[in-house]
Amino acid sequence: MRRFFRVYLCAMIVLLLWTPAGRASAQKTRQTIQEGVGWDHFIVGANMNSLIDALGFPDKSSYGRLMRWDKVGLNCLLNDKDEAIELRFEKRFKGVTGSGVKFGMSADKVRKIYGDAGPMEWRDGGMKLIWPSRGILIWFHDNSVYQIVIFRPHT
């Protein structure tokens, strides 16, 4: 009886790990950032209290209208009504946009995904490209995505 139970248990473990659901749970899933919206409860328009409910209290390094959660790679800018108007995703976030842009991707690959951007801007050795109608701005350093910024789309 013991032997049967061990064989059964081993078979169930193998099946669980072999199925797509088992493999997916064994792998760390990437979080999807929706252009013009945000991620999960970290969304454009969310008020400060709902952000704290979803993410916990911001880091002590937060100041003024900037709320930071550096450990998870998130920060946001609030308006005077304490609503998120700009969401910033850093490399530590381990996410990918709904269109497939991920951290480390080259500017050429990003342009192939989103098409022509607004005017290119350079600052402090970094380059940013903006797609206002999609609600996304991407910072590049050494031709590599290092920050994704989400805001309300506009034309």
Describe this structure in words.
This protein has 155 residues and is α+β, with helices and mostly antiparallel strands. The chain has one domain (30-150): protein yfey like fold (Sandwich), CATH 2.60.460. The protein has 4 helices and 11 strands. It has a 7-stranded antiparallel sheet with strand order 4-5-6-11-10-9-8, with no helix packed on it. Strands 1-7 form a two-stranded parallel ribbon. A two-stranded antiparallel sheet has the order 2-3. A hairpin with a 5-residue loop joins strand 5 (74-78) and strand 6 (84-90). The longest helix is centred in the N-terminal third of the chain and has 17 residues, at 2-18. The protein starts with a helix and ends in a 5-residue tail after the last strand.
Write the layout of secondary structure elements.
Layout (H helix, E strand, L loop, with lengths): L1 H17 L1 H7 L4 E3 L4 E2 L2 E2 L4 H8 L10 E4 L4 E5 L5 E7 L4 E3 L9 H8 L6 E3 L2 E6 L4 E6 L2 E7 L5
Parallel strand pairs: 1-7
Antiparallel strand pairs: 2-3, 4-5, 5-6, 6-11, 8-9, 9-10, 10-11
How would you briefly describe this protein structure?
This protein is α+β, with helices and mostly antiparallel strands.
